[in-house]
Write a structure and sequence with these properties.
The complex is a heterodimer. By secondary structure, chain A is an alpha/beta fold. Chain B is globular. The chains are: A alpha/beta, B alpha/beta. Chain B: Keywords: Methyltransferase, Transferase. Chain B: Its EC number is 2.1.1.80. Chain B: One of its GO terms (molecular function) is protein-glutamate O-methyltransferase activity.
């Protein structure tokens, strides 16, 4: 069964795709990056928890396998479509009203910097119903709160089905607090992203 | 984690910026709004205040304003944050500093002093302790008081030890501290060559000439126009061929300043003043 019609329509019109994940999400994100076409016509932001202090091997690995233009975010980068942005380690990534990023070294949220909550909350304020967020596998509760704000501001929110997630705590938290508008199986998520 | 019930509008942020400027003379209008908003919400959560209470207290309680100032700016810092930066500094800049009879260094936005002491340790390792002096400045008197004390928790020093390991410096970070129970106090030898004082990058001017200015992870809180005003201040404060270090995600973007600063290390955002 394919994704529902309403969801497909929202995917087609969404301007910003947010992908959040932690433990157990790396492979999925890697496959998504590989899948997305160069001319997707959307902005993509990936927030993934990782060890601090190590120069972004992830961004390098992703860039080598992406058809879209891909970069690790630097302060005041402008959000442009057909680009995948990776949140840098040891900073929170904020989105400003003018459509650019600003970085922040303030306290970790859920022991995480970057925090998915922080970026999701900013996206909720700036992009509102013009964005879609997918929360993947992870072993803490980061992302659930931010996803709730996204949902309340009209965004499409999707949690990976906990049974499919390598670590179910993160998507489960978003389901439990009512933040997940949709709960999708991994293959359904890929089908959706594959739809032009 | 955060309280979803507190919502601050952009108009309210503007209102607060105006109020702080009029009553206390601090101008936050060039600060990035998303971060300011998060900080204000944080203060309201910590103090369990409504927006109205916050405004009222800001006007009427000077002590509260000091607290506000401390909380509105981000004072999260660490020793040897981004070890690769210190490695690059050691290789590419220290040899230049050693050619001076006396090198002056400005650490702008130094918060509680961790970066000043990291630089002091680096200089000592390079044998430049007696030939250098570090000025640490911040807008916030309370963090400067902490910086002068130079006492950090043993736990945090342990976490900086990992950073230190990756800098390629010899010895161990704990060689620079006297440890007493769960506190680590910076050796006086390192403190001797430091001075901490108040300086507001938004409103204060040149106060000395420096061979090196380090201002890392401060620009991220400023809008582009303010960044450029401060770049001009740094340019004027540097000696010819002096060095400027920004945070590893902070790049000089404006063409005008790209002509005034040569890139020494692209990855670590180390620049050198050129032109006149």
């Amino acid at each position: 069964m394919g994704p529902d019609k309403n969801l497909l329509e929202r995917w087609r019109t969404t301007e910003l795709l947010l992908l959040g994940g932690s433990a157990g999400s790396f492979k999925l994100l890697f496959q998504m990056v590989k899948l997305l076409p160069a001319d997707l016509g959307k902005i993509v932001i990936i927030v993934i928890h990782r060890k601090r202090n190590f120069f972004s091997e992830i961004a390098k690995l992703f860039a080598e396998n992406s058809r879209m233009s891909l970069r690790e975010i630097e302060d005041k980068d402008v959000l442009e479509k057909n680009t995948i942005y990776i949140a840098p380690a040891n900073y929170h990534t904020l989105i400003e009203k003018g459509g650019y990023f600003s970085l922040d070294v303030s306290e970790a949220v859920w022991y995480s910097k970057p925090s998915i909550d922080v970026t999701f909350e900013c996206a909720a304020e700036v992009y509102q119903e013009r964005c879609m967020a997918i929360l993947l596998s992870g072993a803490n509760q980061d992302g659930a709160e931010g996803m709730l704000k996204l949902k309340n501001s009209g965004a499409v929110t999707i949690a990976q089905h906990p049974e499919d997630a390598e670590m179910d705590e993160m998507p489960a938290a978003a389901i439990n607090n009512g933040a997940a508008g949709y709960i999708l199986r991994t293959d359904e998520i890929f089908k959706l992203l594959h739809t032009q | 984690m955060s309280d979803t019930s507190i919502i601050i509008t952009s108009t309210q942020i503007t209102e607060l910026i105006d109020l702080v400027r009029r009553v206390h003379g601090f101008d936050f209008s060039g600060y990035t709004k998303a971060s300011l908003k998060r900080r204000v919400v944080r203060i309201m959560q910590l103090k369990k205040m409504e927006f109205y209470d916050l405004k009222h207290t800001l006007v009427n309680d000077q002590h509260f304003f000091q607290y506000f100032l401390e909380e509105i700016t981000v004072n999260v810092t660490e020793m040897f944050r981004d070890p690769s930066f210190y490695k690059a500094l050691n290789l590419q800049v220290i040899p230049y500093l050693s050619t001076y009879q006396h090198a002056k260094i400005w650490c702008a936005g130094c918060s509680t002093g961790e970066e000043v002491y990291s630089l002091a340790i680096l200089l000592r390792e390079a044998g430049l302790s007696n030939k250098s002096f570090i000025y640490g400045t911040d807008i916030n008197t309370e963090v400067l008081r902490e910086a002068r004390k130079g006492i950090y928790s043993l736990r945090s020093i342990k976490s900086y030890a990992e950073n230190y390991q990756f800098t390629g410096l010899k010895g161990s970070i704990s060689d620079n501290f006297t440890i007493l129970y769960d506190a680590a106090s910076v050796h006086n030898e390192l403190k001797q060559n430091t001075l901490f004082s108040v300086h507001n990058l938004v409103s204060d001017d040149v106060f000395n000439e420096f061979q090196l200015i380090s201002c890392r992870n401060v620009f991220i809180y400023f809008e582009t126009e303010l960044q450029e005003r401060i770049l001009e201040l740094f340019y004027k404060s540097l000696c010819p061929l002096g060095y400027l270090c920004l945070g590893s995600k902070e790049t000089i973007r404006s063409d005008a300043f790209k002509r005034k600063f040569k890139v020494i290390n692209h990855q670590e955002n180390i620049y050198q003043k050129i032109g006149t």
